[in-house]
Amino acid sequence: MYPTVKRFLDICISAVSLVVFSPLLLLTALLVRLTSPGPAVFTQKRAGRNGKIFTIYKFRTMRRDTPSNLATHLLSNPESFITPIGRLLRKTSLDELPQLFNVLRGDMSLIGPRPALFNQYDLIRLREEAGVNRVRPGLTGWAQVNGRDLLSIPEKVAYDREYVENLSLRFDLKCLLRSFTSVLSADGVKEGGTGRRP
Q: Which of 43, 109, 113, 138 has the smallest CB count inside 10 Å?
């Protein structure tokens, strides 16, 4: 029952949010274009529900010459690729706003495990074993508010599994509220970090 309600809420909230945040979306796109060469929106192939590959949308925060199919933590010096405005967008998570279109399309949910890159086979495999891949990935999720970039891949999967096993409106609201506080405090933001706790 709840998955149906969850999808209905995803459609309603993402549609309203796109209208409400349209000035911010346009302003951010303009700033990205004016501060570095390249398109305002960055696309990338990600693994979605049941392993289905989809195209994710993000505001571009890195230079055009950045390897597009490599996870940030695998870059030798991720900081060197980030644009000046990109640093702010990543810290505030504003770069994720275009994913509201992904939510509206049904590729993603507002709350759920963050979608893995199509070639992050270790993460995808562990999520498959944990039953995580049966739900839509999300804009934010339980792992995001419990360490984000500071979590190792097994730790992320453990939080993802906990989320799936406790899927409910109450848990989604808990994730949403904690996401706001995490964004405001930039909690867990560490470029290139995957399990690299301070």
A: 43
Answer yes or no: pTM beyond 0.70.
Answer: yes
DSSP for 129-195 reads: HHTGGGS--EEE-TTGGGTGGGS-HHHHHHHHHHHHHT-SHHHHHHHHHHHHHHHHHTTT--TT-SS
Q: What is the mean pLDDT of residues 95-100?
A: 97
On the 0-12 / 13-18 / 19+ scale of CB atoms within 10 A, 102 is buried
* CB neighbours of residue 55 within 10 Å: 12
Count of alpha carbons within 13 Å of 6, Cβ hemisphere only? 21
- Could you tell me the CA-to-CA distances from 15 to 10, 20, 97, 102 in Å, in that order? 8, 9, 12, 11
Count of C-beta atoms within a 10 Å radius of residue 33? 15
How far is the C-alpha of 130 from the C-alpha of 125, rounded, in Å? 9
Within 13 Å, how many C-alpha atoms sit on residue 95's CB side?
A: 22
